[in-house]
Amino acid sequence: MSSPEKVEHSTTFGRETVTPHDRDRRMREVFHRLAPHYDRLCDMMTLGLHRGWRRELVSMVTLKKGQRLLDVAGGCGETAASFAGPDRQVIVLDSSLPMMEIGREQGRGEIDWVAAMARALPFPDESMDVVTISFGLRNVTFVGGTLREALRVLRRGGRFFCLEVSKPAGIVKPLHHAFARYVAPWLGMRVTRAPHAYDYFVESVLGFPGPEEIKDLMEHVGFVDVRYHSLSLGIACIHSGTKP
Ligand SMILES: C[S@@+](CC[C@H](N)C(=O)[O-])C[C@H]1O[C@@H](n2cnc3c(N)ncnc32)[C@H](O)[C@@H]1O
After folding, report:
1. Can you list the domains of the chain with their CATH numbers?
2. Which of 57, 154, 184, 192 could form a disulfide with 243 if both were Cys (CB 3.0 to 4.6 A apart)?
3. Which residue's CA is the closest to the ligand 1 atom numbered 25?
């Protein structure tokens, strides 16, 4: 198992080793291209399972009247839309304008959209009641920095939830591996018509740390009461933690 320091930040993009600056730039390019197809791709890449996983995440979150929720790397706002309502503030933060534009066009209303990087949240300390991130942590370059920023903006007792793909074991492992390595990039290419548009996906899924490592990193940056549970035989996982 890796030490928390080793999963602090990602140095790869696909099979290449890249600088943080280059990785961020390439990530923005990927989502620029994928944005118009994102919802469809999400269904295809997870065989529709992401819907149930999102419902599970939403069922774990309590957001009271007047409270604020920040969805980091929130993309088109699919997860955030489930929390939105007139008596609370729901913010999607993402580094990709095209992704957020799609969300706005789809009329995912009552959401505030903020263009920024997950490692430098433009919000004061202790200004959020809940922070969520779904399918975002494996894409950010600074994993530890993103978790630290989530912790910083949460009020004391505020809750953090992370939904992400994970590492299945047993019989599902080889099937998942084959799907991620061969089927998913092919589907990505068919949908986007851009060769290699989804190449990074394989390594980001298969190379992402396991749930124990993410738990260790969350504790390392300062979250308490850190737990996780696996979904769909370990294909995805939800971590949660509290700001002490
Ligand atoms: C796979 S999508 C997930 C979108 C959304 N959270 C969902 O559940 O569908 C990953 C998102 O992370 C965003 N992203 C990647 N790196 C980021 C960073 N460093 N800061 C903020 N957003 C980032 C991308 O622009 C993209 O919208």
Report:
1. 15-242 (3.40.50.150)
2. 154
3. 96
